[in-house]
Every structure is written in C-alpha cells, then in structure tokens.
Amino acid sequence: MDETVAEFIKRTILKIPMTEMMTILKAWDFLPENQLQTVNFRQRKESLVQDLVLLCESKRASLRDAALLDIIYTQFHQHQKVWDVFQMSKEPGEDVDLFDMERFKSSFEKILRRALKNVTVSFRDAEENAVWIRIAWGTQYRKPNQYKPVYVVYYSQTPYAFTSFCHLKSNTPLLSQALTVASNHHKIVKMDLRSRYLDSLKAIVFKQYNQKFETHNSTMPLQETLELDMHMDSRIIHENKIEKERVQRVTQETFGDYPQPRLEFAQYKLETKFRSDFHGGILAERKEPLRCLIKFSSPHLLEALKSLAPAGIADAPLSPLLTCIPNKGMNYFKIRDK
Amino acid sequence: TAGLNLGLRVLAHLERLETQMSRSCKNLEDPPRETAESDLGTKIHKLRCLRDKLRAEVKQRQARIKASTANAEPDQTLEISEQEAVGGKEENMKAILQAYRFTGLSGKRTSRGVCVCISTAFEGNLLDSYFVDLVIQKPLRIHHHSVPVFIPLEEISAKYLQTNIQHFLFCLCEYLNAYAGRKYQADQLQRDFAAFLAGPLQRNSLCNLLSFTYKVEPQGRSFPFCARLLYKDLTTTLPTDVTITYQGTDASSTSWEEQRASHENLFFTKPLYQVFTSFARNGERLDMSLVS
C-alpha cells in the first residue's frame, strides 16, 4: 500500500469519534466483520488506528477505498462543511431527461480528466437516487491534495447541485461545466444560498419545508390561541391581549406551523442612499450611496426571526427582506436604490 | 306531585287530629255530650274515610308515576336516536368527503383558496397522495405543494394554471399517476423478484430509465439477459423503448433469439411484475401463448 494512502487512511480514521467508529467502518464495508472482531476497540485510539491501518494494508487498500472512507466520514459529519447551491437549467422544449447514473458518473469524470490530469474522482450512491461525488484537485505537475477535497451532492433529474465550500475558486468553472454537461443541462448559476445544513438547503430549494396540508382526513387543529399559561395566578392580567393575538396570527401566517429550515446567517449588502429624518446630519443628503454590510447570525436564524415579534423585540409583520428567505431561496442579498 | 303533597299534608293533619283525640279521650272523665260525641264521631269517620281515600290515591299516583317513567324511556331514547341520526349524518358526510380521495382528485376549501389532493394508484393499488395548495387570487398561484421536484410542475403551471385549471390538474394527475406506477413497478421488482435479478437494479428519480440483468429462472445455470427500459413518455407506465440483450456464448442459437424477442415484447406490453410472474410460472421455456 502506498505510504501516502496509508497516511491518508490513518488521518481519516483518527478523525472518527470512538462512538461512531464501528458504524462508519461497517458502512465502509472494506474490512470484513470477522476481521473487525479481532481488533481491540477498547485500547487507546492511536493504537486502535494503527491496528486498523495494518489491517487495511494487509487487504491492500487503494486510494479508491480511502476516498470512499472519506466520503462516508463526511456524510456522517455534513455540518462540518459549508454548502453552496448551484442551479442548472435546460433549453425550453428539451427532450425528456433519461438520466442514467452510470453514464453521468463516467461523463462527469471524463470531463474533469480531460482538463486536469491530476484529479481523484470518487462516487458513492445515496438515497433518493442521489450521488455523492468527491473530488481531490491536483495541478498539471502536482498530485491531487487528498486533504482538501470538494464534495458535490446531486439528486438525479433535478436542477440543483450542492457543493462543499471550495477555497480553490479556480476549479469552480471546470466543476460547473462537468456537472452541467453530465446531467444534461445547459446553464449553471450559483445561488445566493449557503448553509452548513445540507438537509435544510435541500428542503428550501426542493420546496419541501412546508408539508402541512388541509385535508378532510385530518381534523384542523383549533386556532391556537395565545399560549397563555392557564395555571397562572388569576390576579395576573395579560396586557395587550388583542395585540399579542394579532402578532401571533401574523407570525403564523408568515412562518407557518412547520419547523423552519436551518440557516446560520443572512447577509445584506446595502448600496443605498442614507435616508434620515434629521436634516443636516453628517450622513444626510449625500449623493453617493452608503455602503454597508448587515449580517444576522444565529444557531437557527429562521426560528430566531420567527420568535422576534412574539417576544416583543420587533414589530409584526417583519420586513419582507427577512421573511422571504426560504421562499426566494436566498440568504445573501444585494440591495440597491431603484 | 302537588296532589301528593296535599294528600300527605291532609294525612298528617288527620294523624294530628287522631292523636289529639286519643289524648283528649284520656283526659276527659265525663262522657262528652252525646250529640257532640256523635258529631265528632261522624266527623272522625268521615275524615278516616277521606284519609283512606287519599292514601289510596297517593298509592295510585305513585304507581302511575312509576309506570310513566318506564314509558318515558322509549321517549327519551327517541330523542337520543335523533341526535345520533344527526351525528351519524355528519359522520357519513365526513366519510364521504374522505372517500373522495379514492376518485384520485379531491380538494378542501381553505381560508385562501383550495387544497387539492391527488391520490395516485396503479392497478388497483392505492399509492402516495400529493397536495397542491392553491391561492385563489388574480393570478392564481401555488402557495405550497408536495409534488416531487423532478416532476415538471413549473412547466405544467406555466402552460395551464392561469388559463385552464382543469387541464392543469388533469395534466398533473397524469404525470403523478404515471410516476407512481413506474416507481411501484420498480420497487416491486426489487422487492418481490430479487431472486431473478443478477445484479442491482439501476434507476433514476423519475423511474423512467431502468437497467438490470435478469434470469428466467432464479437458480438457473443459464446466462442472464440484460434489459434496458426507457420510458420517454412521462405520462405512461409502460416503456417506450426496450432493449434486451443476451450475454451467453450460444447467443446465435435460434431458441435464445426467440426468447429474447419474446421478452422484448413482454416488457413492451405488460407491467414488470406480470412479466416476472410469467417467468416464474413457466420456468425454462417461455410459453408463447402468454404473448398477447
């Protein structure tokens, strides 16, 4: 086994938390069950990793096998990457898409290899007719860097592809081209949408985040009145009950009853003239637009926004710039004067 | 009960009078004047008669009340069954509305428009339901939906939603039912006829391209066939293109060629489970009479 491959496998296994070790090794399915049982999983991690690497060596693990392990690790730790979304489109009046996964994979790899001799491309089929692609980039003279790969997740016959954030921007056009051509599309555009939560990005662009529908089968839940604590002392009165109920209603109409998709931030780049009520201020009556960047951050931005008005921190309804995020599939905005 | 009360009061009064009488009888040494005595005597007699009469009447009334409560029950049950009838009608209506699902297309009014439910089915099997929540405004728009992203909903809406909503719904129904039918066939093949497959079934999101290798007999020593089924028409559940190839070394022999051709025809005309059921039933030799 190549030393670089051995080192790569060693570093990958070292990353795996002990609680997930067995699960991930089983998913990898490279070391058979009976061999795994001969390993002492209770020893110190470094020693365990050494034992496992020796086993891999004895089975002659290839770069291909190592790359597969890396994909599986990343699938278990999706949130460690930041994901971008690309949207592809076809010409109108195109023939029906007869997507063949094997042809997609070979076409994708061929396009990359034609442009770049040194590249490692690996695939792993996933649920819902999707595929995870791992690409380790090299240059004309340098071997691929296995420690800075890019991941692409593509659901067949959809116009969207999710890619992990790539520091090496220079390879993005090539990646875009490979994706577009292999999946029978014509154009590709990067969306202004980014998050660590792949599931949420999928829910947003596939429009799957609101799955509550009124049917005759389900009994419509009674209009939820304010969650006033019924056990509270009767001497306590709720001020502004009517206003509170209005806020609750408006919030419910805007954000719905469903769990919000998870985003960590929303960013607004403003290039607008400063508007002020005070005349003669420093910023007032400037001809040039004011440039500033406003960023809202949160462990769960949309839930946080949803709770602003009921908590009394903001007026309801919230600005459409905030509430349009899942509907428009954007969390990066550029606002200019019209 | 008023009469009962009166009767009881009279009885109490009579008893008081009786006690008074017996007391006064004890106290009085001299015999009372005859006329007064005889008057009182008659009075007592009359009162006793009245008391007995009232007692009898009380008893009768009590008996009547008992009888009437027994009779009142059928009356009460009549009331209850009326309620039940109304409740039953409501249940019935609800059940009918729920059953509309089985027509394949049903809907429910919402505060902003209507929520349409498309229930798919294939060969008598009820499959998934998909929803489209419409906002009745000018222009008509879709608020949210559960149609899979690979179904061309945007295309269909662009063509028909504003001009002909019936056609929009009909078209969407066609696509969804066909998709559900193809998916059902592919799932069933993987699940129930796995023994016939020599390798994994390759498919895609729309289930409009299926690629697999199969044998006509699960334990057979014969070479497998390779099948490639294309469904270019997304509104159908049968393939538009079928390519069967035989990998065996004796590929040139006529019997294998006949089989190959007949398989092709089968895949064109029958849903997948029927094709494989016929393989199962006939074992090695394919019965030509099945090819209709």
From TrEMBL, chain A:
- Which Pfam family, just one, is annotated for this protein? CENP-N
Asked if the Swiss-Prot or TrEMBL record annotates the protein with the keyword Transport, the reply is no
Which keywords are on file for this protein?
Answer: Centromere, Chromosome, Nucleus
Cell compartment(s), UniProt: Chromosome, Centromere; Nucleus
Major localisation: nucleus
Top-level division of the source organism's lineage: Eukaryota
The family assignment reads: Belongs to the CENP-N/CHL4 family.
PANTHER family in the cross-refs: CENTROMERE PROTEIN N
Name of the protein in question: Centromere protein N
TrEMBL record, chain B:
List membrane-spanning regions: none
Q: Where in the cell is it found?
A: Chromosome, Centromere; Nucleus
**CDD domains recorded for this chain?**
DRWD-C_CENP-O, DRWD-N_CENP-O
- Keywords annotated in UniProt: Centromere, Chromosome, Coiled coil, Nucleus
Q: Which Pfam families match?
A: CENP-O
Lineage: superkingdom: Eukaryota
- The residue stretches assigned to a coiled coil in this entry are 44-71
Q: Which InterPro entries match?
A: CENP-O (IPR018464)
What the entry lists under PANTHER family is as follows: CENTROMERE PROTEIN O, INNER KINETOCHORE SUBUNIT MAL2
Which family, according to the similarity comment?
A: Belongs to the CENP-O/MCM21 family.
- What this protein is called in its record is Centromere protein O
The gene from which this protein is expressed is CENPO
